[in-house]
Specification:
alpha+beta; Glycoprotein, Type 4 Pilin; Dna Ligase, domain 1; six-stranded antiparallel beta sheet
Length: about 200
Amino acid sequence: MATKQHCAYCFDALVAHLNRVPATSSKPILQNFDGTLEYPLFVTWNKSSRGKDKLRGCIGNFSAMRLDTGLREYAVTSAFHDTRFKPITQSELPRLSCSVSLLTDFEEAEDHLDWDVGKHGVWIEFRNERGRRQTATFLPEIAKEQGWTKMETIDHLLRKGGYELTITPEMRQSIKLTRYQSQKAHLSYDEYMDM
């Protein structure tokens, strides 16, 4: 299960990278509920601005990884290499929060609507207008936070994945969809400093 200690470990990695020192953590990663230390995972950074959280980076991996190396890698990757955003700076630290999502219960869906908003994350595979295989995903909380229907979520995923043509019912039906769940933990910078 994802814990605040996992998020603290990500903050340790971020702070070390910003200070250009080796990443070491005084905060232990606790063993997961099923006894393993490998999960597909995502690390998300948000920044508080005028009372609202704004996304600053979110990157992860669908292959199971050791939590110590996976969290360290994706804490840095999502903070500095999410191409949608400028890299996180030292001055932003006090307004940051970190979320760790450990992904579980992967199931191939029967069709593009075989999932539940707020419960499942969705990962789609499709062919773009040039016939190339593309993928895109949203974590379980995204559709609910955005107030999207299943159809709107699928259309946003197609655009996120780079599909540029008109989205038709036939295009939606051609999607291969995998649904999954996640165990999520969240930690603000203030909470991190108090640990």
